[in-house]
Amino acid sequence: MADGHAPAGAHGFTGPDGTPVGPAPAVRPFLVTAGRVAGTASGRPIPVETQMVATTAGIDALERLSFEQHDIVAACRRPQSLAEIAARLRLHLNVVRVLAEDLRADGQLSVHVPRTDIVRDASVLRRVIDGLRAIPDSRGVLRDSD
Amino acid sequence: MASVPSPTPGGYSVTPTEPAAQGGAVTAERPPLPVKLVIAGGFGVGKTTAVGSISEIEPLTTEAAITEVAAGVDDLSHTPTKTTTTVAMDFGCITIDPTLKLYLFGTPGQDRFGFMWDDLVEGAVGGLVIVDSRRLDDCYAAVDYFEHRGIPFAVALNAFDGTVEHSLDEVRWALDMADQVPVVVFDARERGSVRDALLTVLELALSRTEG
C-alpha cells in the first residue's frame, strides 16, 4: 500500500486452476511452490497471525535458498506474522504458507500456530484489555478522562 | 469460569521445529502470542484509517482469499455458487507486552454477496464492523457473517466530520441486530476513539468466556 506496487484490491486472481489470473505478481510465486496451494491436503491453512522465526539452521542455509525462501528466512530473523511476511515481501499469503511449510519441514523456520483456546482465554483477553486501556488517545489523555 | 487450558508455553500448539539440537531460533525471545481482531465494513468506511490510528506500524496490505457465496437476490436456484476471490486486507498491530501482541485485520465486505472470510477469521477473538450511517447496506454481509459464526462483535458508526446521520437506535433497527450487540459511535481518526471501540469488542469477548 505504501508505494502502490502491491496489487491491492485486485480481483480476478483465481488460483492455480488454469483460469485467467489478474495481477502478474500473483503468478510467478505459485511457480515457486510448484503449483501447490496451502491448506488442501494438510487441513486448514495456518492463520494469518501465525508467528514465524528463522532458526539458526535457516540463517546458516540462507545462501543456498532460492529467492522467495531466502527472503522469508531473512525477514524472519525477528518473529513475524505470516501476514507481515506476505505484505513486506509482496507475496500471496498462500505462497508464503506453502513455502513456510517447506522451510519448517527442513528445520529452517520455526512456525508457531496460536492455540485458539488459549488466545480466547479470559486471562489473555484481560491482559489485552489492560494493555489497550493504557494507550493514550491522540491528545495524550488516558481513557475515562474525556 | 472454564478451567484454564493446559499451559502450553506461550500458548502455541505447534512448535514442530523446536531445534534444540541446532541452537534454537535465532532470536532469544519466543514470538509473542498473537491475538487477532477483524475489522470489517464497506469500502471507504474507515477501516484502514482506524487501523492506522492505533497500530504501532504503518498499516500493511496483503491479499486474503474470501469465498463468495453467490446466493444473492438474483439467484433463484437457492444453490449457492462458491467462488474464491482475493481482497486487499490492511492490517496493523499493537504490542501489549513482549509475550502478547494484538493484530488488527481490516477487510472489505462484499455488497450483495454472502461471503466467508474463513481464511482470515479463523481464531479471531472478535470483530468490529465499521459502518458509515449513510451507507448501511455495506455492512449487512459483515454483520451476518459474525452472527452466523458466533464471533463476538460490535458495530461502530464512524462519525465522519464528527456527526452521524442516524441515531444508534435507528441503526440497530435498520440492521435488525440482536440487543446484545453493542453499537457505538466512534471517530476512526482518533486513537482513543478506536481504542475504546476495540475495548468494547474485547470486553464482550471476555464476558462470553465468563458467561
Largest interface: A-B, 75 and 75 residues
Number of domain units of chain A: 1
Class from helix and strand fractions of chain A: mainly alpha
Architecture (CATH level 2) name of chain B:
3-Layer(aba) Sandwich
Structure overview:
The complex is a heterodimer of chains A (146) and B (211). With 146 residues, chain A is mainly alpha-helical. Chain A contains seven helices and three strands. Chain A has helices spanning 28-32, 56-60, 67-75, 82-89, 93-105, 116-119, 122-133, and strands at residues 51-54, 80-81, 109-114. Chain A has a three-stranded antiparallel β-sheet. In chain A, helix 3 packs across helix 5 and helix 4 packs across helix 5. The radius of gyration of chain A is 19 Å and the shape is elongated. With 211 residues, chain B is of the alpha/beta class. Chain B has a single domain, classed as P-loop containing nucleotide triphosphate hydrolases (Rossmann fold, 3-Layer(aba) Sandwich), CATH 3.40.50. Helices cover 24% and strands 31% of the residues of chain B. The longest helix of chain B has 20 residues, at 191-210. The termini of chain B are close together. Mean pLDDT of chain B is 79; it is low at 1-7, 14-28 and 71-75. At the A-B interface, strand 1, helix 2, helix 4, helix 5 and strand 3 of A face strand 1, strand 2, helix 1, strand 3 and strand 4 of B. Strand 3 (109-114) of chain A pairs antiparallel with strand 1 of chain B. Chain A: It holds the Pfam family DUF742. Chain A: This is Multi-component regulatory system-4. Chain A: InterPro entries: DUF742. Chain A: Residues 1-26 are annotated as: Disordered.
